[in-house]
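As a next step, we paired sequence with structure tokens, yielding the entry below.
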Amino acid sequence: MKTWPAVAAVLESPDASFALQPVDLGPLASGEVLVRVLASGVCGTDTEARELTPTPSVLGHEGVGIVEELGPDVTGVAPGDLVVMSYPSCGACAGCLRGTRWLCEHNWSLSFDGKRGDGSQPVHRDGVPISSAYFQQSSFSTRAVVPARSLVLAPSDIPLPVLAALPCGVLTGVGAVLNVLKVAPGDSLSVIGTGAVGLAAIMAAKILGATTIVAIDVHPGRLELSRQLGATLAISAAEQDVPEAILQQFPEGIRAVLDTTGRQSSWSDAVAYLQRGGDFAFVTTPEPVETYGFPPFPLFLKCGSLHTVLLGGANAQDTLTTLFEWYRQGEFPVDDIVRTYAFEDIEIAFAQSAAGETIKPVLLMP
């Protein structure tokens, strides 16, 4: 059975540093593709996965690369194709069969269990399988084994760092306003937290014609960048009472609110300035995850709607294709939030992201 060598960033334990080590990948199962990884985004989910995915592990879930080999029964891609690796799906559950792969019943296990759906692991170190198939790609490696149904053909005229920034965080932010909140011309939107997800949402809202876009954060630099990318009002949660600041300018409140922080105080604030009949969407929950952490009556009184956003509620093929076109047209300047790092500087990328110095790190493979 054929296998392929690679160099992967192996995480030995949840509190360890990444170490670049030689590994072997394969053999390919039915429907799988071998991809030579050229770049991979670094996402906050990768930090959370330290505790969620068994170790030793190979993480990474925003890969871009060139198809090298096809396993049995693969259609839709060919060797030499440039592809973006998107989120996993089983292809057989009710959510997948009706074309809503972000609702795949097995999304969580396929993302975080560190193995294929059949329990096997595609990455071996010294002949021993290790936790891999993270998001069914484990793209912190020079090669990755990926199901063909997770791949989206990518245009060659878009820079690799931009392509690697899109598959998860940016897709989530854009999908939240496009597919879940359904922001329309003349609409109002508030975005709490201006990291990659929040800034993607702001850029998308501007393209979709929202006339009021409020950015909320505690980092002055990110608030300034949010203005450059489309926010019409930027509020420092460290210096102002957020509901008061918003209601002073918009007494009826904001129609659509997106929280990217998972802070309980942000949820309470959001409900306070949500417009009657408005929509509040969130991409992560407050701690502890067992409770919502805010009184539901104000939301009930306003006839507001609460929306979970998972993977942007997005069909990756459709939404990523839209992002490709927006970028080509100069409307979606993802370059402004991306900083690139050599693969061997993966620890620096994570540290600078955690410190707020970098919004969207992207690793470039050798």
